[in-house]
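Hi R.,

Here are the chain sequences for the assembly we discussed:
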Amino acid sequence: MKRIGFLLVAVAMLGGVVALTAPGIGRGNEQASPIFVTQIPPGYRNWRLISVAHEAANFNSLGAILGNDVANKAYREGTLPFPDGAVIAALHYTHAPSAENNKISGRPQSFVPGTPTNIQFMVKDSVKYVATGGWGFGHFQDGQPGAEAFLKACFPCHAQEKAHDLVFTQYV
Amino acid sequence: MKRIGFLLVAVAMLGGVVALTAPGIGRGNEQASPIFVTQIPPGYRNWRLISVAHEAANFNSLGAILGNDVANKAYREGTLPFPDGAVIAALHYTHAPSAENNKISGRPQSFVPGTPTNIQFMVKDSVKYVATGGWGFGHFQDGQPGAEAFLKACFPCHAQEKAHDLVFTQYV
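And here is the predicted structure of the full complex:
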């Protein structure tokens, strides 16, 4: 909690610095930039594979991480930070035992994606999402965006992955 | 072992039936059809996601299953059996704890793909692979195809998934 509190302060400070040094942002009648991703990026289910992930314990999650063309190119070429336009999608499901597979193998060893739990996105736009390291964070459950209070937890945690431009998933 | 033995006999019988009833196959100087996939299908790493899989216990495997356009279309439209030209790829890695992620979350819960272990393929060609249900099975380790004795174990196991045209992975 202490660390997260510190990071939220850091975010607020970063926002202040940007407001002072980037006159092109927030000028005129424009409203403050939205911090979170509120629309599901179209076509994400056709994107290429970046990696897969299993989060055990309370998460009990099995997922796939996909990237659009910009994200994939950056991953493959090792480009950091990710360029604007990069979008990363994490498709999460419960980590469910496969009774069908286990019956055939004769061993309780097979786990497959169960119920879809959420889809999360990271959208790189260094202007729009400047307050959160250039990344917009999104979380969707049954097609509906997550609550703001929930989404506020994304950046402080991802900010700890500074060496990889705030992205946990590495290319497989 | 008993079940596998039975299925190998069944395969041999199936091959015999085909030889008797399909005069277009094996005629002239053509050699007997190869049973296994010996070349890695090009471009598979760009294919679309079908699903992900975690095999625990001795397998200790985390993987992604991708499909070419023909396979994806069939999956999405629920076409069974899969049409000729469908190719399914399974990219396998060790199921490895992520020290980096766990450090940030403060909990030993995160597992990611570790060392690549093998890539497996199922290639649908109802003529070429008629002896194994129309599917050619392939297994590659460090780019090299698996031994024939090893590959012989694929079909008897997959044959138990008759309701899904011998394919274990379901679309996620």
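Chain A touches chain B at residues 45-46, 48-49, 51-59, 62-64, 66, 91, 93, 95, 100-101, 104-105, 107-113, 157, 160-161, 168-170, 172 (CB under 8 Å). Strands of chain A lie at 48-55, 61-67, 87-97, 110-124, 135-141, 144-145.

Let me know if anything looks off.

Best,
T.
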